[in-house]
Structure formats: C-alpha cells, structure tokens
Amino acid sequence: MAYLLVVDDEKDIVNLVSRFAEHEGHTVDTAENGAEAVSLCQKNDYDLVILDIMMPGMDGFTVCKKIREEKKTPVIMLSALGAEYDKLMGFELGIDDYVVKPFSPRELMARVKAVLSRNGVNRPKNEIEIQGIRIDMLAHEIFVDGEKKDLTAKEYELLLYLVQNRGIALTREKILDAVWGYDYFGDDRTVDWQIKLLRGKLGSYRKCIVTLRGTGYRFDEKA
C-alpha cells in the first residue's frame, strides 16, 4: 500500500487511474491542475506522484520542478506526446518513469509497483487504512479513529470485502456469495441486516457504505 497523487486535467483518466490504484490497495488523492498538485504536495508526503505533462496553466514539467524544490517524491509522467525531447526533459528533471498515452492501466500499475519498490516504499501489507478506519488483517481487528471495535466474524469479513472492493457496485447476491459462501441458503435481507449492524460500529464513517437502491452496496471512501 502506498499514498499516491494522480494529476491530470482529464477527469476520465484521473478516475481510471484512481480506480485501478485503489484496487491495488493504494490510497489516492487527485488533482486536476498543476497549482492544485503543488499545493497538495506541500501539505502531504506522497509515496508517488502520477503526473500529466500537458495541462492548462502550469504544465507537468513546472509542477515537477516545484515538487523537487522541496521533496524527492518519485514521479511517473503521463503524456500523449511521446517525443524523445519530452522524455529526456522529464528524466533530466529527475522523474522515475514515463508512460505514453494511451496506456494500459495494468501496465501503469506494474510501473507504479516497480518505482515504489526501487524507492524502498514498504507499507505493511497486512493492514488497510481508509480515512479513520484501520483493518489489521493478521489480527482480524478493526480500529475506528484509533479505537478498537468489537466486530463479529461476519461483520469483519463484510467490512473487509467492501473495503477491498471499494468504488465497485456490489450486488447483494455477490456479497452473499463472497462473505457467506455459495452454499448459503438465506435470503439477501441477511446482507441488509449485517450492513445496518456494521454501520452502527463505524461511527461517522457509516456514510462510506453507500446504499445502491435496487442493487446492493458500494464502499466509497469519499462519501
């Protein structure tokens, strides 16, 4: 797990990269322009910045220079240009990798993994932390704003499944199969009841479990 910043003025690309990165277990912040990216980098210590070159106002090269004035945060640049000059310019600024649009999100995630590994980023793989919720997968324990919560085995499994698939719409049937097993003979009201109990233990983060009427649920860390 790592803390990433994705910067691009194209919302579709930001959403796509964020979704794949979060699926890999990373925590993601986003910015739609260079000025916002610089501001976020000044406030937060990111493990990696995925940065588009061609943006209105402040371009990616300028953003990279400003980041490098204060921090040595690894940078992967995205560009539709692909010209040798732009690659050389990026590497002269000290970027760690360069990806040409259009790109495969899976290939980008592989490059993210490689850059993080080269830079010694080694967050605990047995823990997931989303906002104030921390899941210790070794101890099967849940902490909300630092306070340990007593969850039943099914509540723990349900929360872990929702978090691991955050941002994805999950039907009640899919949740039943994943958490209760394919041979479970109960109905989908079981899911609704367990969601109600789980929300009661998450405090202010209960809103992260979003109800999708007529479908099921989605865990949304930005809700």
Question: What brief labels describe this structure?
Answer:
Arc Repressor Mutant, subunit A, 2 domains, 8 helices, Rossmann fold, 223 residues, single chain, 41% helix, 12 strands, alpha/beta, elongated
Question: What is the topological layout?
Answer:
Layout: E1 3-7, H1 11-23, E2 27-31, H2 34-43, E3 48-52, H3 60-70, E4 75-79, H4 84-92, E5 97-100, H5 105-118, E6 127-130, E7 133-136, E8 141-144, E9 147-149, H6 153-164, E10 170-171, H7 172-180, H8 189-201, E11 209-212, E12 216-219
Parallel strand pairs: 1-2, 1-3, 3-4, 4-5
Antiparallel strand pairs: 6-7, 7-8, 8-9, 10-12, 11-12
Structure notes:
There is one protein chain. The chain is of the alpha/beta class and 223 residues long. It folds into two domains: 3-118, Response regulator (Rossmann fold, 3-Layer(aba) Sandwich), CATH 3.40.50.2300; 127-219, Arc Repressor Mutant, subunit A (Orthogonal Bundle), CATH 1.10.10.10. Helix content is 41%, strand content 22%. The chain has eight helices and twelve strands. It has helices spanning 11-23, 34-43, 60-70, 84-92, 105-118, 153-164, 172-180, 189-201; strands at 3-7, 27-31, 48-52, 75-79, 97-100, 127-130, 133-136, 141-144, 147-149, 170-171, 209-212, 216-219. The strands form three sheets. A five-stranded parallel sheet has the order 2-1-3-4-5, with helices on both faces. A four-stranded antiparallel sheet has the order 6-7-8-9, with helices on one face. The protein has a three-stranded antiparallel sheet with strand order 10-12-11. The two termini are 21 Å apart.
